[in-house]
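Thread amino acids onto this structure.
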């Protein structure tokens, strides 16, 4: 069996209600991510938490040292789990993420977190380009409505478009329940069903 790691990207307080940049479905995505984290821990897999800190004066959220930049309690890292701080969209850029994966001989990575259209998209494509087999848990990711050139794209539609792009050539894209079933875990309770 290939060695597998879970990468938990930017599930931080500012993305939740009352934060500086709340996302659509943040609570549900975090609940699903917590289930995936629990399964990875039970399997003895490497769990890596990515925490973004914004460095610019005009940053809208994730200001270094702020409560909003802290990992959300639903997915809080355990002592001894790796936490990598990044300052860019791509979790591999100017961090030791790749070195950490390679040191442990990781071949497969699973990705959960936020935002789907930015940091999840970037880390997934980069991981695939580096040669890792990638799985994205689509309902353990959150995002916001998008706007381009006067057109509003609701979060659900943007989510579908980005996941379709990743599924086409970069990753296996599964629901939480599908991923847990593949591990032999029982299907979850009704409140955490597939989206």
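Threaded sequence (195 positions):
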């Amino acid at each position: 069996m290939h060695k597998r790691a879970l990468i938990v990207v930017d599930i931080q307080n500012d993305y939740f209600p009352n934060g500086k940049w709340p996302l659509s479905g943040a609570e549900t995505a975090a609940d699903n991510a917590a289930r995936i984290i629990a399964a990875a821990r039970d399997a003895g897999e490497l769990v890596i938490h990515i925490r973004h800190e914004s460095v610019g004066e005009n940053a809208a959220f994730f200001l270094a040292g702020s409560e909003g930049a802290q990992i959300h309690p639903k997915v809080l890292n355990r002592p001894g789990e790796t936490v990598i701080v990044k300052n860019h969209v791509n979790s591999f850029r100017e961090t030791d993420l790749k070195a950490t994966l390679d040191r442990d001989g990781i071949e497969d990575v699973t990705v959960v977190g936020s935002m789907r259209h930015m940091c999840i998209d970037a880390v997934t494509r980069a991981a695939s380009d580096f040669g890792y087999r990638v799985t994205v848990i689509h309902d353990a990711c959150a995002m916001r409505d998008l706007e381009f050139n006067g057109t509003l794209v609701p979060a659900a539609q943007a989510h579908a478009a980005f996941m379709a792009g990743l599924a086409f050539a970069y990753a296996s894209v599964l629901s939480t329940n599908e991923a847990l079933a593949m591990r032999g875990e029982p299907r979850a309770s009704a409140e955490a069903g597939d989206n």
